[in-house]
Design brief:
The protein contains one helix and four strands. It is an alpha+beta fold.
Length: about 80
């Protein structure tokens, strides 16, 4: 069984992830959310749930983005109906 963790992009000078919009210059440590096991790709949610398998990293990233969009829409819907 092979396992490959995909790291988040980093700043070439410091080796740290770049700050997100609105963050200070020293962002917290972040771990990769995507990994490959055998020939399948998986993603990990903030809550620690593993989603997959997917045929490619692109599909895993697309599925994660779809989940994020759904969660944002549900939160907006709940707030809108208060």
């Amino acid at each position: 069984m092979t396992f490959e963790l995909v790291e988040q992009s980093t700043d070439n000078c410091t080796g740290k992830p770049p700050p997100r919009a609105g963050e200070q210059k020293n962002p917290p440590a972040r771990s990769g959310r995507f990994f490959k096991m055998e020939n399948s790709w998986y993603c990990v949610t903030r809550e620690g749930a593993i989603r997959g398998p997917y045929n490619s990293q692109i599909q895993a990233k697309s599925a994660m983005q779809a989940l994020i969009n759904l969660m944002i829409a549900q939160k907006w819907s709940r707030l809108h109906h208060l």
